Every structure is written in structure tokens, then in C-alpha cells.
Amino acid sequence: MSQSRDVKNRDVQNRDAKSTDRESAPPGIDTSVAHSARMYDWWLGGGHNFAADRAMGEAFIEAIPTIRSMAQANREFLERVVRYLAREAGIRQFLDIGTGIPTSPNVHEIAKETDPGCRVVYVDNDPIVLAHSRALIAGGEPGTIEYIHADLRRPDRLLADPALAATLDLTRPVGLMMVAVLMLLSDADDPWGKTRTLMDALPAGSYLAITHPGQDFNPQAMAGVVAAANRGHMTLVPRARAKVERFFGAWEITEPGVVPVMAWRPEDGPPADPNAAYYWAGVARKP
């Protein structure tokens, strides 16, 4: 990430840190407990976060000082992969799991640059994400953008939601986006099985895009963020490359394979240090 973008993000963060806590939260939401979506929002310079989210974000920064730029690299992968799926793979439908608080450009904005008829369903389990996503949808083209409040731990409920069937045609290929979300499920939650349920519901020609924090980039630093997450009662499970590859099952992994996120089809030439962001990234096609 460029120095100017770093400075811009810090300016936004400093400004919003003074005002965000005045934002009203939906009833029943305990803003004293950090949430991954709002913490990620803060790292990206957003203003929809609270003191607990920023405190947890700072604890992660103590373990990995460059984690903000890593979050930005992960976001830039999302933009690249949606463009790839829309322009090169011909995908016109997207299911974005763990979408987080809307950050422009959003999936539908990127996809609709290729074809205004693209359809997108966003999914998250944070009511604050729900509130902001509903506002986003209200300004979009009716019938092509939807938000479903659902939990990845219950993919069966997500697939049965009427809003999904009303927006996406599951007889036609879908781009399944699981960007920086699977690490929030422990091994006991069987994230591979949950992902498989979603994959099995999609037709041939569909694609799966994943990014996942890598245990094998810097084990000591990862141990530090896991410890910080545990103190905040947040699940965070970095995984080694082989375990990330396992998510794709028998689907055909596209070039360049499961690689560091900055090395997945970079648009500005090879990065100086592809291992600078501790995420694995990959895309696969259902045969």
C-alpha cells in the first residue's frame, strides 16, 4: 500500500475515532464487545466502529504492526477477483459471505462495471452490518442486490432464505466469495463442511474465492493475534496453506494457485515482497 494511502487512512481513523461512539447501534447490540467486521472497518479507515473494536484492533497491531496494510491488501484482492470473475470468467451472480461493513467499491459496484445486470447477495451476521447494508441496497437497482442476515455456521438456513432464491438463480454459475471469514470458525465448527454445503448447492461453472490468514507466514506474530482475540472472546484461527487448499476440495484451482494474497494476479506487476501480507488466497472453478 502506498504511503499516501497509509496517511489518508490514519487521518480518517483519527477523525472517526472521535465521533463513531456517538453513532447509535441497533437495539440489543453490546458495543462494549469487539466484532471482527467493525474492527476490520477501523483498519480500513472506516467510521462504523466503537471503542471496543478499536481497542481490539490496536491489540492486533501490537502483534502485527503492518496489519492495516494487510487488511488493505486483502480488500484489493477482493476487487481484483470480482473483476476477474466478471470480465474473464463470465460470472454474473455473486454470493458474498461475511461481507462486513460496506466499503466502496463494493462487490456489486465492481461487477456492474462489466455488466449492469449482475446480481449480488451479501451475507453477514452483525446487525450493524445489516443496518448499513440495507441503506446501501436502498440506493441500488431493485432486485439485483440483496442482504441476508445469516451465520456461516448454518449454511442450510442461508440456502433456504427466500431472498436468496429471489435474487440469484442457482441453476446458473455463481461466484462464491469467502474473503477473510473462514478464520472466524474453529476446527470444531467444521468450516470445511460448512463451505462444502454451499459449494454443493452451486452448479458447474461456479467459482469459489477464498482468502485466509496463514499460520505459516509468521507463527510468532500469529500466536500474538490469536492470544489477543482469545482475551476478547473472539475466535480467530489462522491456518497453514494445506488446510486452506483443502477448502477447494475437487474444484479446479485456477492459476496461480493458492498463493500469498498479494501474489494473486497483481495488476501493477509482482509485489516487492509477496509475503508482506499474511493471507493465503485462491480461486477455484466447479467442473
Protein model, in words:
The chain is of the alpha/beta class. The chain has a domain at 90-216 and 235-285: Vaccinia Virus protein VP39 (Rossmann fold). The protein is 41% helix and 14% strand. The protein is built from eleven helices and eight strands. It has helices at residues 3-17, 36-43, 51-63, 67-87, 107-114, 127-138, 155-160, 162-167, 191-200, 219-231, 241-246; strands at 93-97, 119-124, 145-149, 175-179, 207-213, 252-253, 259-260, 279-285. Helix 9 links the parallel strand 4 and strand 5 (207-213). Helix 3 (51-63) runs antiparallel to helix 10. It starts with a helix and ends with a strand. 45% of the residues are buried.
Name some characteristics of this structure.
single chain, 287 residues, alpha/beta, Rossmann fold, eight-stranded mixed beta sheet, 11 helices, 41% helix, globular, disordered N terminus
Largest sheet features: 8 strands, mixed
- Helix/strand-derived category reads alpha/beta
Distance between the termini: 35 Å
What fold name goes in the CATH topology slot of one domain? Answer: Rossmann fold
**CATH architecture descriptor of one domain:** 3-Layer(aba) Sandwich
Order of helices and strands: HHHHEHEHEHHEHEHHEEE
Q: Just give the CATH class of one domain.
A: Alpha Beta
* The CATH homologous superfamily of one domain: Vaccinia Virus protein VP39
Uncertain parts = 1-22
Q: How large is the count of helical segments? A: 11
The percent range for helix content is 40-55%
Measured by DSSP, the beta-strand proportion falls in: 5-15%
Care to count the β-strands?
8
Radius of gyration: 18 Å
